[in-house]
Design goal:
The complex is a heterodimer of chains A (281) and B (357).
Chain A: H1 2-13, E1 26-29, H2 31-39, E2 46-49, H3 73-78, E3 83-87, H4 93-101, E4 106-109, H5 115-129, H6 132-157, E5 163-169, E6 175-178, H7 183-190, E7 194-195, E8 203-206, H8 208-214, E9 218-222, H9 232-237, H10 239-242, H11 245-248, E10 252-255, H12 257-261, H13 267-279
Parallel strand pairs in A: 1-2, 1-3, 3-4, 5-7, 5-9, 9-10
Antiparallel strand pairs in A: 5-6, 6-8
Chain B: H1 4-7, H2 13-40, H3 48-56, H4 63-98, H5 110-124, H6 130-136, H7 140-160, E1 161-162, E2 165-166, H8 168-192, H9 195-206, H10 214-231, H11 235-241, H12 245-250, H13 255-277, H14 283-295, H15 299-323, H16 332-350
Helix pairs in contact in B: 2-4, 2-15, 4-10, 4-13, 4-14, 4-15, 5-7, 5-8, 5-9, 5-13, 7-8, 7-13, 10-13, 11-15, 14-15, 15-16
The chains are: A alpha/beta (281), B mainly alpha (357).
Chain lengths: 281, 357
């Protein structure tokens, strides 16, 4: 214990190199944080990202320090960050402790699945990067677009909002769906619709009968390849889905996961696109 | 299911004993080499040598060197040695106690108990009262995993002990039942978990040494060192036990005390190892078997060799896990299984006659 304290004191005693504004030394943890940094035009200051940061495409060329909740301390230090900007929930705590001991500013960006949540994220990132003016402009632009998108969605939905079931996966025919208090649930509501499932929180497997009882008008899924990809015919052939209104109208909407659920600067576009697919498709 | 060698070794015992004694030296050297390598390598490219040079010439280290070498690599190295040695020795003890080459701490539910403890902490940790979280802090998952392992061991011992005598066969079966029960309870908690907790769980169960800190070293080291030190006194008794319980007691071994000690040591070492590193498989099975094939089954020399090789292999796996996809890190449980399983199969194929089920 005393050794750690000693190490910390010694570090504090060392001459700290001052970080010039605009230095290329920012590590972004979390897809929405990375997106916001690029949207603020500060993308060229990034020296690393985590594995959830898949947009914009140029982010992919940055070194990947791993999944945000399982960061390795030396891996993070190896990209030589002068500042770490992270979504809420980065970990494990031991790693964060070491990074703090290394005197690297660690900015946690709070987030919630709402318009104000996104605005708050943008302002926090802007402050951390010392580009407040740009962040205020981006935040008000994003807020306006989101409000417009929500208003447009409500207008389109009118008196008959659609019931939407967000399906995370259908492994072995078992449907893993979104309940309340998730990014999926929030985006469905922003798109003027109703989450078909309100009986539980988070993502949980649902029984076939519960899916039928939820009676979704539309199935919403992430657009991905690999083991999670399900063709439309297979999806609507599932006993649970086959008996829903969605199957009768063959209504399924697929969107990119980070775009749909990231709650970043692109969310207004995602809401508009989702609304269009739901009500004009 | 008995390792046939233990009863009718075709090799001259004296020769083997010399080989096993020499192996102490070679394995200790190998461990030292890997340990230095582990301190010297990492994704930051911080050089151990230039840091040592600075220390000897009295120059100050950079902040990066200090943090990387002292706060990251050093505790990680020590935890790696402790966990590797602890898991490997636990495996060897279990195989000796059950006289079964398949036995490892996982088989009797210690691992499943630890997993249940960790899962409970991950999922329900946020619902604990604040004053309690303040006391345990970051240590909630390790502490809970440790108690999970211990709970299983205590129940197991009580179930399989009647009139002061422990039935090893009952213990094996009860262990399987308890493992199933712990897994089922984990399932219930997993069902209640949210998305993020599920990912935490997945990573926990794949094991990692990345969370090593000095606090963990201070807590784990006494437990595992006492366990390993204690195990070195059990060699003679376990050798006798290989001949059967009745024979062992005729040879003057206090069989019941031997069983109790073995169980306690395994619980202490495995509980602590699982608590700090999560689920690291295969070390407890592969290391003792490798050494039995190479140097014979005599527990008096085997246990120390197992500790040394277990530590060296785990450190090697850790070096790979932190370098192979740097700056990200591969969970170490994946490395041990990917490397361990094929090597193990290859040995079995080559020397299939030696392990007779």
């Amino acid at each position: 214990m005393w050794l750690r304290t000693l190490a910390r004191l010694l570090i504090a005693a060392l001459p700290t190199t001052t970080v010039a504004e605009g230095d290329k030394n920012v590590l972004a943890i979390g897809g929405s944080v990375t997106e916001i940094i690029y949207a603020l035009g500060e993308g060229d200051r990034l020296i690393g990202r985590d594995s959830t940061s898949s947009y914009p495409p140029e982010a992919a060329s940055l070194p990947d320090v791993g999944y945000m909740r399982a960061l390795a301390p030396e891996g993070v230090l190896s990209v030589r960050p002068g500042m770490i900007i992270s979504e809420d929930g980065a970990g494990p705590p031991e790693t964060i402790e070491v990074l703090q001991a290394a005197d690297i500013p660690f900015i946690t960006v709070p987030g919630s699945y709402s318009v104000e949540g996104i605005v708050q994220k943008i302002l926090t990132v802007g402050e951390a990067l010392d580009v407040e003016a740009a962040s205020i402009a981006l935040a008000s632009d994003v807020r306006m677009k989101l409000q417009e998108a929500e208003a447009a969605a409500d207008a389109l939905a009118g008196e008959t909002p659609k019931r939407v079931l967000f399906v995370l996966s259908t492994q072995d025919g078992r449907i893993m769906a979104s309940g309340t208090n998730t990014a999926a649930s929030s985006i469905i509501e922003m798109a003027g619709s109703v989450n078909a499932v309100t009986g539980f929180e988070g993502y949980k497997p649902m029984s076939d009968e519960a899916v039928i009882a939820a009676a979704p008008d539309v199935i919403l899924m992430m657009d991905r390849r690999g083991d999670h990809f399900v063709a439309n015919e297979d999806l609507f052939a599932l006993p649970a889905i086959a008996a829903t209104p969605a199957a009768q109208t063959q209504s399924v909407v697929r969107m990119n996961g980070l775009y749909l659920l990231g709650f970043g600067p692109r969310t207004a576009d995602a809401v508009l696109e989702l609304t269009t697919s739901l009500y004009k498709g | 299911m008995i390792i046939s060698e233990q009863i009718s070794s075709p090799v001259a015992p004296k020769n083997r004993r010399t080989v096993a004694r020499q192996a102490h030296v070679w394995l200790a050297l190998a461990l030292l080499l890997v340990a230095v390598l582990s301190l010297a390598t990492g994704p930051t490219g911080t050089s151990l040598w230039s840091a040592l040079g600075k220390m000897f010439s009295g120059k100050p280290l950079t902040a990066m060197e200090r943090v990387v070498l002292w706060d990251i690599r050093m505790p990680r190295l020590i935890i790696g040695i402790l966990v590797g040695a602890g898991l490997a020795v636990s495996g060897a003890l279990m195989q000796g106690l059950f006289r079964n080459p398949l036995a490892d701490p996982g088989l009797v539910g210690v691992g499943a108990g630890g997993t249940l403890g960790a899962i409970l902490a991950i999922v329900l940790g946020s619902t604990l009262p604040i004053w309690f979280s303040d006391i345990v802090g970051n240590m909630l998952i390790p502490v809970s995993a440790f108690f999970g392992s211990w709970l299983v061991i205590v129940v197991l011992y009580r179930v399989s002990t009647r009139h002061g005598r422990t039935s090893v066969a009952t213990m094996l079966l009860a262990g399987i039942a308890l493992a199933a029960l712990a897994a089922a309870l984990s399932g219930i908690v997993i069902f209640m978990a949210d998305d993020q907790q599920l990912r935490d769980l997945t990573f926990w169960s794949l094991g990692s040494l990345a969370g090593a800190t000095w606090t963990k070293v201070v807590i784990t080291a006494p437990l595992i060192l006492i366990a390993i030190g204690g195990s070195l006194f059990l060699g003679h008794g376990l050798n006798a036990l290989a001949l059967g319980e009745a024979t062992a007691s005729h040879l003057g071994i206090a069989v019941q005390r031997l069983k109790l000690l073995t169980i306690l040591i395994v619980a202490m070492a495995t509980g602590a190892a699982v608590a700090v590193s999560g689920g690291i498989g295969f070390i407890g099975i592969i290391v003792p078997h490798l050494l039995r094939l190479a140097t014979g089954p005599d527990h008096r020399t085997l246990l120390l060799n197992v500790a040394l090789l277990g530590a060296a292999i785990l450190l090697t796996a850790d070096i790979i896990s932190r370098l192979i996809i740097a700056p990200a890190e591969l969970p170490i449980g994946i490395v041990t299984a990917v490397l361990g399983a094929p090597v193990f199969l290859w040995i079995l194929l080559r020397r299939r006659g030696l392990v007779d089920m």
